[in-house]
Amino acid sequence: MSYKFTFLIIAMFFLSCEKPNPEAQKQNLSGYWEIKSVKMPDGEKKEFTINTVMDYIEINGNSGTRTKVSPNFDGSFTTNGDSENFTLKIEEDSLRMYYKTPFDAWKETVISAKDSMLTVVNRDNKIYTYSKFKNFNLESPTIDYSQPGPDNSRL
């Protein structure tokens, strides 16, 4: 019985130490991302609950574009023209995004890139967490008057 417990502990250790696959992360970068939080190097965390601007990331092979966009109520997006190109590289088992503009050059390291969550760390050791944007749903709810409920009690 004790060897099974020891095996379980060792297996959990190895599974928890597994690093994310950079190639798989690359597949999850494309999409509309809204910032949720920024964790500063001193541990302070800033939360964002409402975003009027978000990042649209488009990947094409080992390069991509990050464009600032604002969502519209009709489901479309408006861009402010602010866009940055980047190159993707896998270094030291991590996915890196290299940016270069006429004014600056920098890199971000992808910590995690999943279907609905993106986390990156920049050169200032700030950790940015994003979630996939969900379109506005402004349709009024449909009430089924044939069923009892809080809006339609049968008497």
Model description:
This protein has 155 residues and is mainly beta. It has helices at residues 2-16, 22-27, and strands spanning 31-39, 45-47, 54-60, 63-71, 77-91, 94-100, 105-113, 117-121, 127-132. Strands 1-3-4-5-6-7-8-9 form an eight-stranded antiparallel barrel. A hairpin with a 3-residue loop joins strand 7 (105-113) and strand 8. Mean pLDDT is 83; it is low at 3-16 and 149-155.
Question: What characteristics describe this protein?
Answer:
disordered N terminus, about 160 residues, mainly beta, about 15% helix, 8-stranded antiparallel barrel
Give the oligomeric state: single chain
Q: Reading side by side through the largest sheet, how are the strands ordered? A: 1-3-4-5-6-7-8-9
Nearest-angstrom radius of gyration?
A: 22 Å
Distance between the termini: 61 Å
Compute the number of helices. Answer: 2
Strand content: over 45%
Major sheet description: 8 strands, antiparallel, barrel
Could you estimate the helical fraction of the residues in percent? 10-25%
Shape: globular
How many strand units? Answer: 9
List SSEs in N-to-C order.
HHEEEEEEEEE
Low-confidence stretches: 3-16, 149-155
The SS-based structural class is mainly beta
What would the average pLDDT be, to the nearest integer? 83
Organism: Aequorivita flava
InterPro entries: Lipocalin-like
Domain Lipocalin-like: 29-119
Pfam families: Lipocalin_4
